[in-house]
Amino acid sequence: MVAPAALRVVRCGGGTIHGARAVFSADSKYLLCASGDFVKMYSVVTEETLRLMGGHADLVTGIQLNPHNHMQLYSSSLDGSIKLWDFMDGIPIKTFTVGSKLLALYALASSEDLLFVVIPKSGERDTFQLVSVKLTKAAGQDVEAKELSVVLDGVGASPKHIAFGREGQYVASVKEANLQVYFFKQKQLNRFSVNAVKTKGGNSQFSCIACHPTEDCIATGHADGKIRLWRNFYHKKEYTFSTLHWHHDTVMDLAYSVEGTSLLSGGVESVLVLWHNESDRRKDFLPRLGSPIEYISMSSDGSLCCTLHKDNRITIINSNLRFSKSIQGLIKSKYNKICPPLWGQNVSLSILGNLSSDFYF
């Protein structure tokens, strides 16, 4: 008789697909998202998983198209590395080892050999910095990228707490009740606080941020459900803001349309709100999306957007705010039942595709 073999976990599947903002390919045919320590590529038309790109040793925290080659993708991870992918073939081109845990990733068309990442501040607990990483052009697939420059101190750890303004001229960051705006060319830092703003009760702390693509306007979401539109923030005292309000709880994410003529917002109500021309009177809704919205992403041609949800689901939406597709990842059961094994000791199990069912072992 053969002694029973020890149970060995070969691979844990069903990673969270709402941990970082998703990215559309330049032609809007594909959707790329972080899923655990993988990067997944889906077909927008068929919802099929086309690529599963592995190589990171820890959670993927950010993905960005290469602004100078739209067939390539950057990904960052808690393992301290940035990978450059040919996502159409699903192969890694280069790995840049930064060393620190990378909590968020940003890429600008105006910065050819630089990426921006959020890292923990050395020697300080729960304190984070936005730094630029110079990408070395050294030969080889695995290279070090240790040339870091601090851009902002005291930033939030979430990817939606930082946004870059018009053509990368400035970067804005929110944390708790504070807004920072740093102007690269002038090397000027302006700080603002909602504590100085008169509010009619509620928690006005910042929850997310987005910058207008063509104008000097910053949209911020707040814990009290309000959206503030900041202008004239080149001046520390003469700044102005207006307020939009529909959400009854925290605004979870914001995204401008490509032209900047409309603003999308989402939160715990599971409703996507489209604000026209930044007006409180002109807005449309896409309700009953199933669960709270974590992230909103726009395609570069403006034809599609997508929402990532708490229940590990992606909803793809047309520009006219009509539902198009839904991609469901694995979800944790709310029940604690455990079924007895239904197979022998030498049977291996493989689960393929994107399944919405619950599995118990």
From TrEMBL:
Keywords (A to Z) from UniProt: Nucleus, Repeat, Ribosome biogenesis, rRNA processing, Transcription, WD repeat
Residues spanning the signal sequence: none
Subcellular location: Nucleus, Nucleolus
GO terms for cellular component: small-subunit processome
Superkingdom per UniProt: Eukaryota
InterPro entries from the UniProt entry: WD40/YVTN_repeat-like_dom_sf, WD40_repeat_dom_sf, WD40_rpt, WDR75
GO BP field: positive regulation of rRNA processing; positive regulation of transcription by RNA polymerase I; ribosomal small subunit biogenesis; rRNA processing
WD repeat coordinates: 53-95, 199-230, 244-285
GO MF, one annotated term: RNA binding
Name of the featured protein: WD repeat domain 75
Organism the protein comes from: Strigops habroptila
This protein's encoding gene: WDR75
